[in-house]
Structures are given as structure tokens and as C-alpha cells.
Amino acid sequence: QVRLVESGGGTVQTGKFLRLSCRPAGNVIGVNDMAWYRRTPGHEREFVAKITREGEPSYSEAVRGRFVIARDNSKSTVHLEMDNPRPEDTGVYYCHAALMTPMTFEFEDYWGQGTQVTVSP
Asked: Within its chain, how far is the Cα of 21 from the centroid?
């Protein structure tokens, strides 16, 4: 069963640092773009950051300058480094990636199960 496995969520104080990680599990033969989304209280799921296979990042306005997305292609792992988080960053963070499997030999969208991040004042 191919899936994305997230780790690193939890509670962090405002202004501190938290790092989320995500990697695919299962029979994956290729990884394209990787990204993070989040659902904050009272809002729909929203884009946070994305990184291409070549390492080009992009960010939402809400996190630009505070969060950094990075990937390790040798481990097919993507990280979200949350520097100076704020209470409004509290929510469930979802990893997203385009994965190729031997079933289809095409890139298909996969989502992680979500990891809770709580930023305390």
C-alpha cells in the first residue's frame, strides 16, 4: 500500500521552531513535486508550500519568510521548517506528493493522513 507518512507535529510555543517531515512508504519508483497544505480552525484546506523535484520552492503569503520547505531526494523526504510560528498557524498539516508506482507508471496525487500542529501563545 503506497502512502505518505508524516512526522514531527505537536505543540510549540510562539516564536520557537518546529519541523515536519514526510516520506513515501510502499513501492514507489518516482517522486515529483512535494508540498504541504494545512487546515486551520474554521477554514478550508489551504496551500502552504511546495517544492519541485529540482528543488524550486514556493510559499503562500501567510508563511513566506517564516517557513522553509526542503527535500532530500536521496530519501524522497520533504521537510517543513516552521520558524517563528504563530497561534494562527495552528491546524492539521497535510503532506502531498506526486508519486509514481509500478501499477501505473504515471505520477498520481497522494495525501498524508495529517499531523496536528498547535502553536501556543
From this structure: 7
Enclosing H/E stretch for 66: none
How far is it, in rounded angstroms, from Cα 38 to Cα 96? 10
pLDDT tens-digit series, residues 21-52: 999 999 999 999 999 999 999 999 999 999 99
Retrieve residue 117's grid coordinates.
500542529
Nearest to 37 by CA among 83, 98, 80, 88: 80
CA–CA distances in Å: residue 120 to residues 82, 101, 104:
14, 40, 44
Grid coordinates belonging to 114: 495529517
Rounded Cα distance, 31 and 49, in Å: 16
